[in-house]
Amino acid sequence: MPITYAVKKVKNPKGAEGTNYFHGQAIKTGELTLEKLARRINNSTTVTQTDCRAVLISMQEHIIEALTEGQVVVLDDLGRFQVTLQGKCYPEETMQDKEFSPITMIKGHRITFRPEVKLKQAVADGRDVILDNSVFELGVAFDSDRYAEWVRALQPTWYIVPDVLEDGKATTARFMEFINKYPDLPGKRIGVVQGESYEDYVKCYKAIEPYCDKIGISFDCSWYRALAPRANPWLQLAAGRVHTLTSMDAEGIINRRKPHHLLGVAVPQEMAAYNVMQSCGTGSWIDSVDTSNPVVHGLKGIVYSVEGLTFKKSQKLYTMIDEDVNDYQM
User: Fold this and answer.
1) For position 41, which CATH number holds?
2) N- or C-end of the chain: fewer Cβ atoms within 10 A?
C-alpha cells in the first residue's frame, strides 16, 4: 500500500536569504488504537474482539516488563524495541570526584525502534551478506559488544572486525581483542588493514592476515594521495590504493591464497586497473568490492563517462535510502 506524503518547504539554515529547500514528509492519517486493532483482528480472523483485546493488553504488559528488565523485544518481520538513555558526558577527572553522582549523567530515557531487516533470508537464498562495523559512517567502529550481538542475531556470511581508521597499531590491538573475546561468532571474518603510512600498513597486514578469512582494503587512506601527487584528490586515492596493492604483491606481502575485499571506491576507473591486473594473470586474489558509488551518482543523475569520473559525490548512501527513483536514475 502506498504511503501518503506531502512536499514541505524548509528555509535554508544558513540564512533567510538563502535558497529554500523542499523534502517529502509522510502525512499522518490518524491513529490505530488498541481497541481499533482488536476490531481489525476480529474482522479478519475467527477470534472474538474481546479475546483479541485481552491478548493485546497482555502482550503490551509483557513488552513493558521485558524492556524494564533491559531486554530487547524482537517482533519478527516488524522490528526491535529497546530502552536507550539520554544523558551528558563528563571528563575523567569529574568521575573521580568523591562528590560526583553517576545519576546526574542520566537526563532521560526513550524506547527506540529498529525495523527488522531480511539479512537472514538473503543468506538463506545463497547471497553473500557482509555486516560492516560502520567505522566509515561513524568515524569510529560500532561498540564491540553490541556489534557481536548483531552478528549473532543476523548471522551474515561475512562480518568486518572493528578497526581504527589509519592506525595500524590500534587496529591490530582491537582486532586481537575482538577475536579473542568472540572466537565463535557465526559467519566468516574480514579484517581491515589500517595504517598511517605504507610501513605501518604493511605491519598491520602481516599481524592480522593469518587470523582472517578475507582481508579488507580501505579506499581512503590519506597517505595514498602522496603516491600520485599530480592527480586530483579522488584520482589520488584510486591510484594510491592500486600502487599500494601492486607494491605489496610485488614484495611478496600479499597472501595470494586468501581473498581480498575492496572497501569503497573513489572513482570507477580504479576497477578498470584491477581488471587489467587480472587479465595479465595477477590480482586474482581481489575477490569482492562494496561501494555505493554507482548508486549515489545514479540517484543524483550523474552518468559515468567512458573515462569514468574525475570527482566523487561525498554523500553516504544511508542518507539517501528513502529517495524516490525514476527511470533516468536507474
Assistant:
1) 4.10.520.10
2) N
